[in-house]
Write a structure and sequence with these properties.
five-stranded mixed β-sheet, 2 domains, alpha/beta, globular
Length: 347
């Protein structure tokens, strides 16, 4: 466990609610952790106009440009050198006491910056985006790795995703031996496309608790802690779950208002709001790009101050728990068992 003073750099102009909610979230994070200093990157005049005199353990790095979702990620990282995101990556790369980065901006730009500016942990073939979805079991989430960073994958990539997400899950859940499953179109070992068929027997050899295949309908059962998949299937799964949850919430609200007496309706809507809160992915903070040399966490594009705060404190927790060191140790064990299958240097 690492303890002591540290800094987290935050892209203050990434996301739909920047800079107000990002800055307010940063202030909330410093108020909850006295060892934390937050470095905000972006237009300093606008940032200071929000901060006022709340500058204790808050630093500002001026950056006049902004990367948007309309920008091509690689070109934006290379050409928009005075953007809040690129400046944030510069701060992360150049300062040993800055342990991680948070942004609510373009997912593609954050991933590109992480690869070009920070680089991968030795032995890891590709970083993977790993959000947490709620499940029907109270207080228990399930991690989806990968959920969009790598659309086309080989077996070695899924093996790396599995060990990284297993280490991440152990830290976030407190469980020593999280259950890891492979997303598939059937529970039987012989099911699936060629990628799944090739990956399944290799996952059985890893130093993790691999429990077999899981179908999409069982993702939110709470029976497994980590679901490993390629970025295409993972992103479709994630967006599908989010869409169904949103649609059901709207449908229930419409039906309740139309068919139930006002008092009963008000009581029921209170129950539904409680259910919606339990199924809110925002409560878990952001999704880390596992496998980067330093912690890079992408929070939701519509994140407000509470979510921003949670994401910053999530970075602190991952740093103090030694996530990257645990990933490195698992990579070493995996390489000893599987050799050239998991070389990790060829993307």
């Amino acid at each position: 466990m690492k303890e002591g003073k540290m800094k987290v750099v935050v892209d203050a102009f990434g996301g739909d609610n920047a800079p107000l909610e990002i800055v307010e979230g940063a202030v909330l994070a410093t108020s909850e952790n006295q060892n934390l200093t937050v470095v905000l990157t972006g237009d300093k005049e606008k940032i200071y106009s929000i901060l006022g005199d709340r500058t204790e353990r808050v630093e500002v790095v001026d950056a006049k440009d902004v990367i948007t979702n309309d920008d091509t990620p690689t070109l934006a990282i290379r050409q928009k050198k005075d953007s809040s995101l690129v400046r944030a990556f510069d701060v992360l790369k150049e300062n040993d006491d800055v342990v991680g980065l948070v942004s609510a901006g373009s997912t593609g730009a954050v991933l590109t910056g992480a690869i070009l500016k920070i680089g991968r942990i030795k032995g890891i073939s590709r970083p993977a985006l790993c959000p947490i979805l709620p499940t029907i079991k109270a207080g228990k989430g399930v991690m989806i790795c990968d959920s969009g960073a790598n659309v086309d994958c080989k077996s070695e990539h899924l093996l790396h995703f599995a060990i990284m997400a297993s280490a991440y899950s152990a830290i976030m859940s407190g469980e020593d031996n999280p259950k890891v499953a492979l997303l598939n179109n059937g529970a039987e070992e012989h099911k699936g496309n060629e990628l799944c068929k090739q990956t399944y027997p290799l996952l059985k050899k890893l130093p993790i608790n691999f429990v077999g295949n899981v179908e999409a309908r069982d993702v939110m059962s709470g029976d497994v802690d980590v679901i490993v998949t390629d970025g295409f299937a993972g992103n479709v799964l994630l967006k599908g779950v989010e869409g169904v949850a949103s649609g059901m919430s709207k449908l229930i609200s419409q039906e309740a208002k139309k068919n139930i007496f006002s008092m009963l309706g008000a009581l029921m809507m209170g129950k539904f709001r409680g259910l919606k809160a339990k199924m809110d992915v925002n409560k878990y903070g952001g999704a880390p790009f596992l496998g980067c040399k330093k912690l890079v966490v992408k929070t939701h594009g519509n994140a407000k101050r509470e979510v921003v705060k949670n994401t910053i404190l999530q970075v602190v927790k991952l740093h103090e728990s030694g996530l990257n060191e645990k990933i490195e140790a698992l990579v070493s064990q995996m390489t000893e068992k599987l050799g050239d299958v998991v070389g990790g240097e060829n993307g």
